[in-house]
Each structure stands twice: as C-alpha cells, then as structure tokens.
Amino acid sequence: MSVQNEVHIVSAQMKTDVEGAYLGTVVFKLEGYQHPYELTIYSKKGKEWDYSLHYTSESGVEEELLKLDERLEEDDELFDTLLEAAQQAGETI
After folding, report:
1. Burial bucket for residue 66 (CB in 10 Å: 0-12, 13-18, 19+)
2. Smallest Cα–Cα separation from 23: which of 52, 7, 43?
3. Sequential DSSP letters for 4-63
4. pLDDT tens digits for 4-44?
C-alpha cells in the first residue's frame, strides 16, 4: 500500500517570511494510528527541514507518538507527502 492511501490530510498550511524561511503545519490521520497528529515543519531556505510532531486535540498513547516519530525519521515518502501537502497550501506573508 502506498503512503498516499495510508494518509489522510485534514488541513495544511505553509507560510514564508520576508527572509525566505518556511513554517508549515499539517494535520493528518494515518492508517493504523488511533489519533490525528500535527506536524510542524520549518526550513530557513526550503532545502533542509526540521519538524516537530504533536497531538492535535487530545493526548494519545505516548508509544504511538514515538512510533510515528520514528517512522517519519525513516520513511522519506511519508515525510515528503506531508511536506508536499503543506507546500501546496503555501502562501507568502
């Protein structure tokens, strides 16, 4: 099964500032995970990305969050899918 079939994007946004730094968020639900999550992504130049993974509305099981964080580290296709969703929703501020 491809990542596109596993992930459901709830909302996405990306903003750039006058210095060209990017800040985005993606709220998503991933098949096999109980709760939706929010990924905050940041890049100074749009090439190397830092991220932070959060619960959305309520705390879930910490082990599930850690499992998803590990998957994001290892699964470039999943991370790229979420990044692309934010980039497509982008705006300049």
Report:
1. exposed
2. 43
3. HHHEEEEEEEEEE-TT--EEEEEEEEETT-SS-EEEEEEESSSSS-EEEEEESSS---HH
4. 679 999 999 999 888 889 999 999 999 999 889 999 999 99
Separation CA 7–CA 30 (nearest Å): 5
pLDDT digits (tens, 9 = 90+) for 40-74: 999 998 889 999 999 997 787 889 999 999 999 99
Chain-centre distance of CA 34, in angstroms? 16
Cα atoms found within 13 Å of the Cα of residue 49, Cβ hemisphere only:
21
Q: Which residues are CB-contacts of 48 (< 8 A; sequence separation ≥ 6)? A: none
Q: 3-state class of 74 per DSSP?
A: helix
Q: Is pLDDT above 70 for 1? A: no
41: which strand partners?
A: 24, 51
